[in-house]
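User
New here, explain this?
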Amino acid sequence: MERELWTALCHVAARLHNQLVRSVYTDEVICGVYWWAVVHDRPVSWACDAGNWPPSSRWCKLPSQPTMSRRLRSASVEQLLLDVERALMTLCVIGPQVLAIDGKPLPIGGASGDADATWGRGAGGFSKGYKLYAIWGEAPLPVAWALAPLHVSERRIGAQLAATLPGWGYLLGDKLYDVNYVYDAAAQANYQLLAPQQRPGRELGHRRHSPYRREGLRLLTTAAGKRIYRQRIQIERRFAQLTAFVGGLGPLPFWVRRFHRVKLWVHSKLLLNAVHQRLLNNTLAIE
């Protein structure tokens, strides 16, 4: 399965690759070597060793670990990752979308010296690490996503992501997102946020409240609104799919530390998950 996922992802990158600057190792090779490490949950240095590649898959010459470290931070490699992400997305959406927003903690050991990781609310209590914030729809990839240290407000990140959404429709969140500015940010992108009231059964009070918040809470009292909100369970399935396959996003390994490495690791896991879902659904052709 690992080689099949890696081959499919490299195939997508090869179709998009258009590097104009001459280099010993193209961006496609740099990404391919990194993805070989990621899909096997190994460090980059492991993928730079030809002994860890089957003869039919490896390139004639592999880059060194210092070369990988330098090139993985380049703007051209980052752009290729974004191009692959767009290619794997479902591009044609007709009518309103129903999207869901949530966060997934990515804890690390409390004794870790990672200067970018912070303490915050994780799964079942406080922990140290990062959190993946995602807005997911029907596509195999999130419509919008971000990574931040655990202490960063989930509401603030949610508002930033909501403001960038394409199209129009409904955005489904839990009661944590029942805040005026998140409703307003979603409305700027033509989305109506639906989130249960933080303190159910209480009046909103006399201070100013967003009209989009009032409308969202009203909709949740109707049969139509309740039917729409039940679709929020889809994001739980999306996060489960992201972790429940060989090469999926499990606990962060000890060599994935500092923000830029964690973001690159998570981004690649999202791409591998998208390839996995498309292969399962026979919607990705490998020529």
Observations:
- DSSP finds eleven helices and six strands in the chain.
